[in-house]
Task: structure prediction
Amino acid sequence: MKFVKSCRKNPIVHLFNHWRLALLVFLLSCLLWVALRPAVAQTGDYDSVTWQEPVKLYTSDASVEFPIILADDAGRLHLFWNEVVMSTDGLSQSARLFYMLQENGTWSEPVDVLLRGDGRMDFPRSVIDKYGRLYVVYGGAQEPLGFSQTDSADAGSAQAWDKATNLTDFGQLGGNIGLAPDGSVHVVYAGLSGDIQHIMRPLDEPWGDSQSVYTLPTGKAVSSDGPLFAVDNQGGLHVAWSEGKMPLRYPSTGSFYSYSADDGETWTQPISIAPVDQQIFSLLVAENGRIHLFYAGRVGVGGRYHRWSDDNGRSWSDPQAIASPTEGTGLSGGDLALDERGKLHAVMGLDGDEIIGYSQWDGTLWNDWVNISADLPGIKERMSVELVAGNRLFVTWESDHDSIWYVEGQLGSPPTPPQDFIPLPTVVPKPEPTAVLADLTPVATDLPDIPRGQPATTSQRTVIEALGIGFLAVTGLVGMVFVVQERKRRF
Result:
């Protein structure tokens, strides 16, 4: 009797002596856990991708470099690359910018649309406006920064391009270009003396004077390929770069980001976005304003990483690993593309630059990368990715500096219909000015190492912890209610 009485006074012992009640509480707990799981983590939501065999698109006896690919709203693909030819005596060189168009699944013949008779045309960068016109900047180290554009959606001949003009009278280390919603053209470039400059051409007006974005510390300059640049749909300007010690500018001593809300009049103080020995290769700004960065470790360091910011660079997520240091070595490049479902697609050089890997981000995690370059021999560099019709991925790269390759991947999501270009008016009207974005002062963030597959944001971990606490509290409450009811029934 003493044992029975003590059991009656101890609800926990009493609960576990009634196995049916304990089983019911356990089943209710399981149902509650299943209900809470979707709120804790939405992982593994990836689109299937079917990759075709790689195709050699072009080959030459000259030096073939710097391919870039762009897609327009009409579902066409535009491909540029630079080709350098040395003179027979080896004392001079000339460069040509080649162009190909894919329309309705068929590639046009390659055409050299721009020429620099004495010099190089490295680091070409291009954008397309809503009328289908193309704009391009180019210029190797020690060369002036060149610019040209088409006057229509037809870019397949040298006659379709305006006479090239130099935006600088001096050498530079690479430039980049973007278009604002009001039709203005923005260009950033890295100077030989370690400065980053911005120059703008308002709609229907000539080019303005260059203005300083940032002056690097003495003895440093922007690393190869020049600064990365993007213009968001509010007209905000985003610049990111890696820098290194002169004269080699390698390895990287750090990477930084800066932002302007007033057409480049003022810029935020640069904020560190990647550690030493890592170089940024892609900067992408989504329609919702989220900024995505891709960076990679040099030989001996390795790794491929992604970070993002939702407040114009004031703060950044922790890095997420796309490939581990042992998988990703070398600085062959990488690129990002974003689809309409918010999925991010990354291509990158891996395994000593001998293969090209592809991975997809579902908004939370990156899936395991796959080899999309098959078993092709050769060193693969400067890969570029574009999305066409919402569900077709095109990846281009140069191989061994003598050929251009591409591979196509078909996503499982439905296609988006092509759109006709807006008819080009005789005089392009100026839209109403957009609201000026608030000046945001960056706040430095730490750069911890994030294991592969671990969610990156603190807010996600906080939500999971809160839901876990709630789960335990509800389970305990349900158990206690059943204990009280059982006690009333028996006593």
Observations:
- The first strand starts at residue 49 and ends at 51.
- Residues 1-9, 30-42, 440-444, 447-467 have pLDDT under 50 and may be disordered.
